[in-house]
Amino acid sequence: MIIEKQMTAQVHVPPSQFGPYIRDYINHALCKNVTNVCFGKQGIVLDVVRVISYGEGRICSMTDHNGVTYDVLYVARLFAPYVGEIVDGVANVVESHGIIVQVGPCNIHIAGFKIPDDIKYRDGQYISDDGLVKIKRDSYLRLRILGLKFDSKKIYGVGSIAEDGLGLL
Q1: Which of 88, 2, 13 shows the shortest CA–CA distance to 47?
Q2: Domain range list for the chain
Q3: How many CB atoms lie within 10 A of CB 125?
Q4: 2-79 carries CATH number 3.30.1490.120
Q5: What is the full per-residue pLDDT of the chain (169 aa) written as tens digits?
């Protein structure tokens, strides 16, 4: 699911960036620092929609971090999947033990026992008994998310295509 959420971040501005374009620098640094970062169960930031406010700067006078730090309140667009959600993705890896599907910025593993019984692994792909369904690398799939693990950098999940309406698109 894609959601918009209000978030805060600290942005450090070195003295060389002080001047009339300091807000441009803060906006650029904010986008660079938070885009494609996983914030646990909140999700992965896809982009910064808008900055709401800039806090008052705090002077940092450490030897290696001279400059000013600003607290920035912004709205971010996040990819935040949840258990039970039905999503579409692309098969990246197809092996005998299952399929790894890329769904947005995260990978969902579909174990072999979560694939319908009439679809078997043969010759590097999953093929149905009647030959109409062929799941191979770069196939588009619809799946249900059964579980999620939130890492500090990524979101991993397990899914299933063994239900009506799920599988090859």
Answers
A1: 2
A2: 2-79, 86-168
A3: 17
A4: yes
A5: 899 999 999 999 998 999 999 999 999 999 999 999 999 889 999 999 999 999 998 988 766 678 899 999 999 999 999 999 999 999 999 999 999 999 999 999 999 999 999 999 999 999 999 989 999 999 999 999 999 998 878 899 999 999 999 999 9
